[in-house]
Amino acid sequence: MLASLHSANTSQAPVAHFSSEHSCLSIDHFSLAYAGKEALRELTLSVPRHRVTAFIGPSGCGKSTLLRAINRLHDLNESVTHSGQITLEGQDIHDPQMNVTELRRRVGMVFQTPNPFPMSIYENVAFGLRLQQRMPKRKRDDIIEWALTSAALWDEVKDRLHRSAWQLSGGQQQRLVIARTLAVQPDVLLLDEPASALDPISTLKIEELIRNLKSELTLILVTHNMQQAARVSDYTAFLHQGELVEYGPTDQVFTNPRLQRTENYITGRIT
Ligand SMILES: Nc1ncnc2c1ncn2[C@@H]1O[C@H](COP(=O)(O)OP(=O)(O)OP(=O)(O)O)[C@@H](O)[C@H]1O
């Protein structure tokens, strides 16, 4: 899959462009404001399928806002206004035909702090499946084993599936949350600083998991940790003050950025 570079019409940002055949999610001149204050400005980019795309940028540049927009988590916030378009596999996520529950099944979200539900390991992973139509227990058990295996947790929990999820370590809880999200078979996984609350060993496990999961789905990773973005992502987008500054193959963005602003951030001159 080759990314060509072109300039977005409005911002002149160097942007990797993927054909619709390779793109899973497309963001087209998307702007978002909280109570009239712009947090994202005219973002245009497409996210390639079965790759890890990292969003980096200083605090407050709009990374989490973008993830929440992709999941329509701002729907109940009346102060939020937006313009432009986000499409998932060609379908406008704000189209009246779009079922928001189905959107959130197709686009899973994992937050910074692990948030297992106060129930057993098994029930956590089964949670989303129970919202779907009735499923035979045998099939549900198979999916739970598959999701826990995909999240690299099965071997550690297979003998205590009915114990409380809260007995797990922080790193295991985060992998459980990822398993819970995978169980409903999303197309996209949004990860908002998924390892920043974890110790170094747990962080490496999450990074390895992210690299392995791209055979299953498309991943978008928000991280402050540039080494982490360089280690796990295939493409990197640099946001600054709500604008997309640069987007391209991770090696290129980190070793040969096209814009001075990107280099300033990567070398620590913008914090
Ligand atoms: N619910 C909200 N209401 C009002 N303003 C908000 C809200 N959430 C975020 N903002 C503002 O939007 C801008 C972007 O915030 P956002 O959290 O998306 O940035 P970020 O890049 O994820 O930051 P960080 O790396 O610190 O998490 C900031 O100016 C922030 O203050």
From TrEMBL:
<dbReference type="InterPro" id="IPR005670">
    <property type="entry name" value="PstB-like"/>
</dbReference>
<dbReference type="InterPro" id="IPR003593">
    <property type="entry name" value="AAA+_ATPase"/>
</dbReference>
<dbReference type="InterPro" id="IPR017871">
    <property type="entry name" value="ABC_transporter-like_CS"/>
</dbReference>
<dbReference type="InterPro" id="IPR027417">
    <property type="entry name" value="P-loop_NTPase"/>
</dbReference>
<dbReference type="InterPro" id="IPR003439">
    <property type="entry name" value="ABC_transporter-like_ATP-bd"/>
</dbReference>
<dbReference type="GO" id="GO:0005315">
    <property type="term" value="F:phosphate transmembrane transporter activity"/>
</dbReference>
<dbReference type="GO" id="GO:0016887">
    <property type="term" value="F:ATP hydrolysis activity"/>
</dbReference>
<feature type="domain" description="ABC transporter">
    <location>
        <begin position="25"/>
        <end position="266"/>
    </location>
</feature>
<dbReference type="GO" id="GO:0016020">
    <property type="term" value="C:membrane"/>
</dbReference>
<keyword id="KW-0067">ATP-binding</keyword>
<dbReference type="Pfam" id="PF00005">
    <property type="entry name" value="ABC_tran"/>
</dbReference>
<dbReference type="GO" id="GO:0035435">
    <property type="term" value="P:phosphate ion transmembrane transport"/>
</dbReference>
<keyword id="KW-0592">Phosphate transport</keyword>
<keyword id="KW-0813">Transport</keyword>
<keyword id="KW-0997">Cell inner membrane</keyword>
<keyword id="KW-1003">Cell membrane</keyword>
<dbReference type="GO" id="GO:0005524">
    <property type="term" value="F:ATP binding"/>
</dbReference>
<keyword id="KW-0547">Nucleotide-binding</keyword>
<protein>
    <submittedName>
        <fullName>Phosphate transport system permease protein 1</fullName>
    </submittedName>
</protein>
<keyword id="KW-1278">Translocase</keyword>
<keyword id="KW-0472">Membrane</keyword>
